[in-house]
Structures are given as C-alpha cells and as structure tokens.
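Hi support team,

I submitted a single chain yesterday and got back a structure, but I'm not sure I'm reading the token output correctly. Could someone confirm the output below corresponds to the sequence I sent? I've pasted both exactly as they appear in my results page.

Thanks,
R.
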Amino acid sequence: MKKAFKIILLLGLAAGFVYTLYFLYQKNQAPDAVFEIEYAKTKDIKQKTVAAGSVIPRNEILMKPVVTGIIDEIFVEAGEYVKERQPIARIKLVPDMVNLNNAKNRVRQAEIQLRNAELDYKRNKSLFEDSVIAAAEFQPFQLAFENAKLELEAAEDNLSLIKEGVSKDISDATNTIIRSTIEGTVLDVPVKKGDQVVEVSTFNEGTTIAEVADMGEMIFEGYLDEAEVGRVKEGMPLELSIGALQGQTYNANLEYIAPKGEDREGAIQFLIRAAVEKDEDSFIRAGYSANASIVLASREQVPAVNENVVEYDAGKAYVYVQQDSQRFERTEVELGLSDGIYTEVLSGISKDDPLRGRKKTEGENKGRARGGS
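Hi R., thanks for writing in. Yes, this is the structure output for that exact sequence:
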C-alpha cells in the first residue's frame, strides 16, 4: 500500500513539473506579430537639400581711422540709424615728437624770412614811390614778401595738422572726425573713449571704430556639401527658416555659388549666397542663424507610400501587399522621387492595395485584443 502511494506521489510531482515547464514555455513564446495597414496616397513630392548658414547685411562697412590717436569722443551707439557723412567719433592726435619739432622749426624759419622780406619790401617800396628805382627793380622784393607770407601760412597749417589734425583754412576737413561712409544702422562700436586707435595703412588693417550696415538689404550665406552643389544653379528659389523667428519663413533667390570648395570639418563644402525677399515691416537682425531649403526636384499629385513600408534588397524595392488578415505577399515596386518621408510609386501596386506597415507593439496588441478589433 505504501509502495503504491509513493508511486502516485512521484507521478503527481512529475506531472506538476512537466506542466510548469509547459507553462513557462508558453509564457515565453512571442505573440503573433500584428502590423498596421497602410495605403498609397496622392501627394506632392519635393526633394530638398538644406544649407546651414546665417543672414547678414549685403552692405556692411567697417569704419577705420586714417590717423593714429586716442578716442576723444563717441557720438553714436549700437542700434542707432546714421546718415552718410554723419560723425561717428572724434580722435585726439598723439603727434610724433620729431615731426612736431620739425614743424615748429619750420614756422620759426618762416617768421624770420617774413620779417626780412618785409623789411626789404618796405625799404624798396619807399624808393620806388620816390622814383629812385624802377618798377622792375621793386617787383622782386614785392614777390619775395608775398611768398614769405605764403610760406608762413603753410608752415602754420602744417603745424596745426600735426598737432590737431585740422587745417586752419579748411577747419571742417579733418581726419580726426570719423564719419559714416554709408547710410544705415550701427551694428557695433567696439571702442570706447580713451582707447588708442591705429590708422589703416598698407601694413596695418587699422582699428575698427564702428560697424555700419544697410539693414534694408539682407542676404543668406551658407554652405552646401559637394554631393549636392552640382544639382543647384543660380536663380533657384530658396526657403529660409530663421531659428530666432519661429514660425516664419522667407523666400530667397540663389545668386552665387563659389567656384572653389572649402575644407570644413573634414568635408568639402561650397559657399552659396542668396538675396532675401522681405517686406518693409520685417526686421531681421544681422547674424541670425538660418537654414535654406533648396528644392532639387518635385512631382505634383503622384501616388506615394511611406518610406517605412518599403524594403530594399539587392538594389530592388519591395512592399508587402495584404492577402488576408495578417498574411502578406512580397511585391516588387518601381519607385521614383523621395522626400525622405514619402516616395513616389511608379508601378507595382495600385492606390487601393493594403500594405504592411509598422509592426505594433505588445501593448498595442493587448489593447487590440481587449477591444476585439
């Protein structure tokens, strides 16, 4: 009796062990895959490339001095609108001591020559008036006196230019006043009162006093990869998206493609430039970062499918057409233009063919089972 009981107990334990293994096996089995069903759609397909860059003024000028000195006064600040010839800053000269000393000596010599010439002139004038000497003899003394006066004036003007940068005769024509050469907006004034500035020359680019730009005419400058540059040409339309102006786009017209590429971060890229179209009420700040979309090719109202339903194998494209329930048949298709999300279908399927789409997740499958769909 005890032996039979032991056998029954062992059989029960074995059966329980086998059931446990079966339960765990069934639990670990992946559920049947369930796919969404998609259809071809009629869409406009545009193949684009994007160039990253910034929006800058077409005409931006750096104001530089033609004399070396110290900023004595600044008349404008960034953001102000200035007109052509409007003063930007005034420079106080720091004259070269050798040139200054030479100029002073020239004035002293001119004064001495003028006094001597004046004495000769007055002495011979009285002789001429008394008819002691002829006019021809008097004339050289008169000419020497006039020349001495001119030489003194020139020496004094030269001294004034070296000391103050302005001539006595032409007080408004001075190199110490920096004036705007264009009408526009002051973008930056990188100096302050008391700063030393250096004149622009062949050997020195000089100190920038101010940056002035015409903000009414803006351009986009960006770079295109060498793989795309061969597909664009001057005159093509662009659509600009400016990071700082969310929700706004601007049209632009491609007007320049660099003939030579640049090595930028290990890739050859080409500079492009486009004229930005904007109305008078729009204000775009200089230096805004922007992306320019260029349409390389387009198709209007063509049948297209989502890229996620396409499978590529050995250079061919396939989709899976539904036969019944979750059974699909692999079908070869001929594709056309793609915008990265949708691709044009030239042949292989019709618009009404149900296609296998995205695989549903386990959670979506459970929800489907509960809903009975």
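A quick pointer for reading it: The first strand starts at residue 35 and ends at 38. Let us know if anything else looks off.

Best,
Support desk
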